[in-house]
């Protein structure tokens, strides 16, 4: 091999992932050359304060304070966006694409909420808009969905996509902690941010699921319409009951094609212990994809400097290799709107936990409400009274429609049969 | 989208996988069109007897009896080789590449034993030589290694790559069967072939490992030099002892970079129960890849009509999408020879099971031989006498060099301290 071409990166965002990217580029220098025939160099880094200037200079890059310096520099081939937020990244990526530059981002929020416009723009300009790092950092899933698994027409997606939520649920399960304590612990250990809303409310998971649905099914499920329940509703009591029945509670991203309609959502669910997803613990992520050729499970680190940095690098290397842009995996970048299955029609197994007064007739009345809707029960257990009075009554249903379950729950609460909020989880 | 281009396939081999390919092409017609802008059509199928003629015509293809009909047909874009064996596939693929056609194969034996010449020829002609189907059928691993994981400089590979061997070990573990009984059961159920040699002797696993080493490390470890031990040596007794210590015995493909040298081999090993690989059961495969950005585990079906057929289809779709050939994942298709670590220098934990006479001094003598070589012991257990006399004595070592372990085993046997063959497995 003779002289290597140099691919110049303009980087916005020099936090954890930005540093991870700089590290993996440095450590993989030889591999990058052998795999792409090019050298990859971080030429300029956008900084918002002088605080980062020395760090940028330490990696041999030029600090710039106006993002237009990245767009206007004709030597910069790729703009890498690792800043977070939505407004500024939208501007930066839009202008980079308009200038005919490739863009690589880890920004699932932007792509989920306003990605389709950006993908159309990238297609119009014939450039890459890489986002391998935006779903499950170190796990190769974006490219496999549009390429390696393209022959396996994926029809079902199940994912544990948020390491913070999974870490908290794992700690609650293994140590019997309540949610608040587990969250504080996770914050103290750096596994949860000071404002953990996006993670614990399932929003981050929903952003990622929106991207996976596009890649796997080739349709656009508007993020705002995705049903999302976070983990703040999960109690140690329900975790314990689930364990007694042979399940672990996980925050799942789920999507499947049902007669051409898309059923999707994010919610805590009971996962059977012998399912590989039940073994995904702590800060790890996993994705189960099922198509016409059987299931595949991908497992690894979902976040962190190097896992995410290495995913960004994979996108950069594809560009350096002159791979043709194939951003969404479909020829036409305008994906049709998803035909969304009515939420009430979604069929699954259900876990229902009531807190009821300890008196005769309650079990009969609740069972009656379920029977009226043809909700068939596979197991029922009455537990000893909890602190503050009331007896937990747990039902595991056979397959039933979500609409019937919700209407049964409403009726049971309206009949005054319960002493506390009823908990409802799907069972995988 | 206007008129679709048609990509014509010339198929050699219409057995299980060939039919699987025809099925997935048929079922994915719409998806293929949306993802590639093309229709994929099996135009001609090579048959060796008239027996298959009707089957070929049933999928709308033309049966041909001379492979040159696939090479000489100017309409055929891609030759797909699914015949098995080595000599004929070598001829077919060589002539197809020479004619400037793309080739796709599931033939790990050919690629492991004589692939480098074919990859050089494909590079010279600027065509694809696709082999996603040749390692772990339904699991996307070939393309991820050269693309999605290219940023994660992989340094360690661990794989369960043979479904037959894994099924037999799983049955031996779960039902306490001996090897012969488990093999007969597997043959009766269609999980093992009449001649299971390639599977149970680890040869098929070694073929796949040879390909993974090339893709991950970018060097060529000559297949003939790869150390290979099959599962015929595994006994129910050792499986039971391993379980007591918290391990399961699996047939592993293993490779890692140690100071730039490659240490690799195929052998049954003890896998800790809490390792994801220990949960890979029956006909499933899994691959654990560890690089500078943490571990990734890929799990799925390793063989079968649709998993393998869908992997072949993924390669065909990449060609239909006009992706640039990137067969080995490196710019220079001439990979350097691997610098092979001396086998004696490989360091790991070890399981040693002796059958010794039930008399004083034996434990002291064996422990003495180990101590002389600085082999440090983490656990030792003496078990009740087995049928036919003799007492099993099981040692679990701390990290030790393979050379020291082998020399200790030889000396212990030469001292007449054992009544039966000593079993030695590595511990993961």
Could you explain how this protein is built, in words?
The structure is a homodimer of 428-residue chains. Chain A is an alpha/beta fold and 428 residues long. Chain A is 37% helix and 25% strand. Chain A starts with a strand and ends with a strand. In chain A, the strands form two sheets. In chain A, strands 7, 8, 9, 10, 11, 12, 13, 14, 15 and 16 form a ten-stranded mixed beta sheet that branches. The first copy, chain A, folds into three domains: 5-137 and 307-320, Rossmann fold; 142-301, Dihydrodipicolinate Reductase, domain 2; 344-427, Alpha-Beta Plaits (2-Layer Sandwich), CATH 3.30.70.260. In chain A, α1 packs across α13. β11 (294-301) of chain A pairs antiparallel with β11 (294-301) of chain B.
- Sheet/helix structural class of chain A: alpha/beta
* CATH homologous group name of the largest domain in chain A: Dihydrodipicolinate Reductase, domain 2
- The fraction of residues in strands of chain A falls at 15-25%
Tell me the overall shape of chain A: elongated
Q: Report how far the terminal alpha carbons of chain A are from each other.
A: 53 Å
Largest sheet of chain A: 10 strands, mixed
The name of the CATH topology of the largest domain in chain A is Dihydrodipicolinate Reductase, domain 2
The CATH architecture of the largest domain in chain A would be 2-Layer Sandwich
Total of helices of chain A: 15
What is the number of domains of chain A? 3
Radius of gyration of chain A: 24 Å
Overall mean pLDDT of chain A stands at: 95
How many β-strand stretches of chain A? Answer: 16
Largest interface: A-B, 60 and 61 residues
Keywords (chains A, B): Amino-acid biosynthesis, Methionine biosynthesis, NADP, Oxidoreductase, Threonine biosynthesis
Domain ACT (chains A, B): 351-424
Protein name (chains A, B): Homoserine dehydrogenase
Pathway (chains A, B): Amino-acid biosynthesis; L-threonine biosynthesis; L-threonine from L-aspartate: step 3/5; Amino-acid biosynthesis; L-methionine biosynthesis via de novo pathway; L-homoserine from L-aspartate: step 3/3
């Amino acid at each position: 091999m003779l002289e290597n071409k140099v691919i110049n990166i303009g980087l916005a965002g020099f936090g954890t992932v930005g540093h991870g990217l700089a590290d993996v580029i440095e450590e993989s220098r030889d591999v990058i050359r052998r795999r792409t025939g090019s050298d990859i160099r971080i030429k300029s880094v956008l900084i918002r304060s002088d605080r980062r200037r020395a760090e940028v200079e330490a990696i041999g890059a030029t600090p710039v304070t106006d993002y237009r310096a990245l767009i206007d520099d004709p030597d910069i081939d790729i703009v890498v966006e690792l800043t977070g937020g939505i407004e500024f990244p939208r501007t930066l990526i839009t202008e980079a694409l308009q200038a005919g530059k490739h863009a690589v981002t880890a920004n699932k929020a932007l792509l989920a909420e306003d990605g389709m416009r950006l993908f159309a723009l990238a297609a119009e300009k014939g450039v890459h808009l890489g986002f391998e790092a935006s779903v499950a950092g170190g796990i190769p899933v974006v490219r496999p969905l549009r390429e390696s698994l393209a022959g396996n027409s994926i029809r079902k997606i199940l994912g544990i996509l948020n390491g913070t939520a999974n870490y908290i649920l794992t700690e609650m399960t293994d140590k019997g902690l309540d949610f608040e304590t587990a969250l504080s612990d996770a914050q103290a250990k750096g596994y949860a941010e000071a404002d953990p809303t996006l993670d614990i409310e399932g929003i981050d998971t929903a952003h990622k699921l929106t991207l996976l649905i596009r890649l796997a099914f080739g349709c656009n499920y508007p993020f705002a319409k995705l049903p999302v329940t976070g983990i703040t509703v999960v109690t140690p009591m329900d975790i314990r009951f689930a364990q007694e029945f042979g399940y672990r509670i996980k925050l799942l991203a789920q999507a499947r094609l049902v007669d051409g309609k898309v059923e999707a959502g994010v919610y805590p669910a009971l996962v059977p212990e012998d399912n590989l997803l039940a073994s995904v613990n702590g800060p790890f992520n996993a994705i189960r994809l099922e198509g016409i050729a059987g299931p595949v499970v991908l497992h690894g680190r979902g976040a962190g400097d190097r896992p995410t940095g290495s995913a960004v690098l994979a996108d950069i290397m594809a560009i350096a290799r002159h791979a043709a842009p194939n951003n969404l995996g479909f020829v036409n970048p305008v994906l049709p709107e998803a035909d969304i299955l009515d939420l009430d029609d979604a069929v699954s197994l259900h876990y229902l936990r009531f807190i009821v007064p300890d008196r005769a007739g309650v079990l009969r009345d609740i069972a009656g409400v379920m029977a009226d809707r043809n909700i068939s029960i596979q197991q029922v257990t009455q537990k000893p009274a909890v602190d503050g009075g009331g007896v937990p009554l747990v039902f595991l249903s056979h397959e039933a429609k979500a609409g019937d379950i919700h209407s049964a729950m409403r009726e049971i609460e309206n009949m005054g049969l319960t002493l506390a909020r009823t908990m409802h989880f799907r069972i995988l």
